[in-house]
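Researcher: We're teaching a course module on how sequence relates to structure. For the next exercise, students receive a sequence and then see the predicted structure as C-alpha cells, so they can try to spot secondary structure elements on their own. Here is the exercise chain.
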Amino acid sequence: MKKIVVYGLSTCPWCRKTKQYFTDMQIDFDYINYDLANEEEQNKIMQNMKELGGGNAFPFVKIGEEVIIGYNPEKFSTLLESNK
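Model: And here is the predicted structure for the students to work with:
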C-alpha cells in the first residue's frame, strides 16, 4: 500500500472531508494539522509541500509520490486503485 500523508487545517471543512474519506474507506493515513503544529514543524511542512509542487494550499494529500491539492475523492480512488 502506498503511504498516504495529509496536511490540513483544523478549521478547513475540505480538510475534514478529506480526513473522513480515508477514515470511511478504512485506509491508513497520516494526518497533520498544519495550523496546530509548532513553528518549526510548520516550516518543515511548508518546505515539503513546496518541494513536491503543491504550494501552500490545503488539504494537501500525498499518495505514494503523487500529490493532490484539495478534496478530490475521484483522484484519491484512482491513485489508490493503481496501487492494487
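Model: If you want an answer key for the exercise: The chain has a mean pLDDT of 93. Residues 23-56 form one domain.
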